[in-house]
Amino acid sequence: MLTALDDAKAEDVVPIDVAGKTSLGDHMVIASGRSQRHVGAMADQVQKKLREAGYSRIRVEGLPQADWVLVDAGDVIVHLFEPEMRKFYNLDKMWQAERAPEPTFELMPA
Q1: What are the structural domains, with CATH classification, of the chain?
Q2: What is the bridge-based pairing of β-strands 27-32 and 11-17?
Q3: For the segment 22-68, what is each residue's pLDDT rounded down to a tens digit?
Q4: For 6-30, how does the pLDDT look when each residue is reduced to its tens digit (9 = 90+)?
């Protein structure tokens, strides 16, 4: 997957391990393209590589506008952005943030 993005000249590629953080998938990748055309071409490359890797149920959202394209292959989720959209939604920060510890409550004697 990362090779496909590298081949497509993706910028600022950030792989994120989301296993245990969400039931949506185990791996997330966030990357930027220089324009809508570039983001759309990257989405095509990612879909092709996922199919070659054996993923058959691939959903794509955000085409043809291509300012933010989501490629969902189940265990692998890829977000492809134009830089302005990526900055606005800031998914990098949201998904890389450490999860807050579960609160603990102590019962106070009555």
Answers
A1: 2-96 (3.30.460.10)
A2: antiparallel
A3: 667 778 899 999 999 999 999 999 999 999 999 989 999 999 999 99
A4: 999 999 999 988 777 666 777 889 9
Check if the beta carbon of residue 76 is closer than 8 Å to that of residue 26.
Answer: yes
Give me 55's structure tokens: 């993923």
d(CA 110, CA 57): 56
Q: Which two tokens stand for residue 1?
A: 């997957």
What does the buried/exposed string (b/e) look like for 21-57 if buried means 16 or more CB atoms within 10 Å of the residue's CB? Answer: beeebeebbbbbbeebebbbbbbebbbebbeeeebee
pTM, to two decimals:
0.81
- List Cβ neighbours of 51 (8 Å cut-off, separation of 6 or more): 58
